[in-house]
Automatic annotation (TrEMBL), chain A:
Pfam families given in the database record: DUF2849 (PF11011)
Highest taxon of the lineage: Bacteria
Name used for this protein in its record: DUF2849 domain-containing protein
Protein's organism: Gemmobacter nanjingensis
Automatic annotation (TrEMBL), chain B:
Organism of origin: Gemmobacter caeni
InterPro entries: NIR_SIR_4Fe-4S, NiRdtase/SiRdtase_haem-b_fer, Nit/Sulf_reduc_fer-like_dom_sf, NO2/SO3_Rdtase_4Fe4S_dom, NO2/SO3_Rdtase_4Fe4S_sf
Domain of life: Bacteria
Name of the protein in question: Sulfite reductase (NADPH) hemoprotein beta-component
Nitrite/Sulfite reductase ferredoxin-like domain boundaries: 52-110, 337-396
Record-level Gene Ontology MF annotations: 4 iron, 4 sulfur cluster binding; heme binding; metal ion binding; oxidoreductase activity
Keyword Metal-binding annotated: yes
Gene3D superfamilies in UniProt: 3.90.480.20, Sulfite Reductase Hemoprotein, domain 1 (3.30.413.10)
Amino acid sequence: MARFTPKVVTANALIEGDVIYLTADDRWTRLHHEAELIEDEAHAQLRLLHAMAQKSVAVGAYLADAKAGPNGPEPTHFREVFRTRGPSNYFLGKQAELV
Amino acid sequence: MYSYSEFDEAFVRTRVAQFTHQVERRIDGSLTEEEFRPLRLMNGLYLQLHAYMLRVAIPYGTLNPRQMRQLAHIAQTWDKGYGHFTTRQNIQFNWPKLSDVPKMLSALADVGMHAIQTSGNCVRNVTADHFAAAAADEIEDPRPYAELLRQWSTDHPEFQFLPRKFKIAITGAAQDRAVTAAHDIGLRIVKNDAGETGFQVLVGGGLGRTPMVAMTVRDFLPVEDLLPYVEAVLSVYNTLGRRDNKYKARIKITLHETGKEEITRMIEARFAELRPLFGGNDQALLADIRAAFAPPAFRNAPVEAYDAFYKADPVFRAWADTNLAKHRNDQYAIVTISLKAHGQTPGDATADQMRVMADLAERYGHNELRVSHEQNVILPHVHKSDLPAVHAALMQAGLGTANVGLISDIIACPGMDYCALATARAIPVAQEIATRFDALKLEHDVGPLKIKISGCINACGHHHVGHIGILGLDRAGVENYQITLGGDGTEDAVIGERAGPGFAYDEIVPAIERIVLAYLDLREGPEETFLQAYRRVGLPPFKAALYPGEGNRDAA
């Protein structure tokens, strides 16, 4: 049986549209490494349901592949890497706002 | 230029008011995202990778200075100081907050603009030749017909739930600058043997995952039959089009599944029913619209200053050689302002640059601006004696790049830097190609060459009709770029051929360089353009350059 690839729950914030992640203590954070790294498939589904229920905060919640890193979860796919920082043509979005 | 009637004004204001309440209800939780999503899309509001995106229609690519200034104001007040002009003659703002969007729409309404029908399965912004009413090779200005189509299709009750989106493009010139053959309906103004004006009607063109060149369903349609005929096409499509499969829902598939003969028969039958119902009201309306598109009062003044400047200043001369096009009035020129400075984002303009362009249009350009599907801005009517002043002002604003039609005049969709649908980035590939060929100082030697880049199979970057097309894909979690060659978006439209296996992100610019160097080696002289050379020799020599060391192995 294939092993479950660890996940984070991610979405966009309702007002700003900015990328957000669900933390283990039920907050939404703008930082990928603060997200809850989910290593169990059943738990992932529960966390996703929890996220999807927060209709006034988060839009389009889904599970994204991630891996453990020294400072917390890190994205594995390049799309999710781009979502952690913003566009490559201007220094705008997260990369500018989080420094 | 056409100004809103009281009816248009009331319609747009009513929609802004409705959407304002819908946003309030979304924010206070009365509407779920599932309920709200179709409402925001009806008003051009998308949720992208990093933020919302507001897509604003620029009907047939025509703007006046006041509208351009308002776009600058919107970019500065509610966005991050810039806007992105798209291949559909729209402008996109990449960073609006949901709570600010009603204010943005209200500001747009103040200058007769909106974001209605820039999304969804309806008739989208009708696009037109960006040189309309200025080009020397034009039979008639296509924009009055585009405006007639806009009024007819806006909120048309029968066509708000089509099987899929529907795009119409129109040109009045022999040289097709509007890519009409890649639209659901392409209209080309032609003359018949009796010297009367009408339309050649093309149906079923489109790019995307199944690229197809449109087929001609009518060689000559009298101009007065335009609306009943287009309505007949839409009506047949609305009935036959497949709503069961998104990927087979465009009219190009309907056409191929039904057959050209049968669909033409059905269109003609429906047309016969519809035609008597129009009763001449459309023609009365068209006459009013035409009056709004009367040509400007062209100046009659000497042009010697231009000739002298052209001889004396090499920088101006280089710009004039690439960025000017022949105007129907010999004393005038059509100015294309390049939004493709080397290393910058294709199609982007800052708020300050928008204001400069608005000022120039007001001072030297008879108050007209155009947006091209090639993501540049055009001043369609500039007297030649004013060109040195226009050029100097453009240079100061970083808008004086002399590269229109050259290798760095690249179309690129937003790709994975912004778009939620993208599978790879497009903008940095364009930036790097432009920077590389600028460093090589080769682009003027290479001559006319259109590179078009899409960041996913939906082909917003028109890669299939690029002389060199680049398609960014996700191959096993890595960006990968496929190359097509020999595409052409003009009246001789051709879909490009796949060159072979794709290239990694850091391999794509060197691959393009190998193609261009191969062209320089094999061309018969500087007069033979890349496309002409490609048509003469075909794919093999370019393939050999792209995949060196593969010898006789046939990758196909």
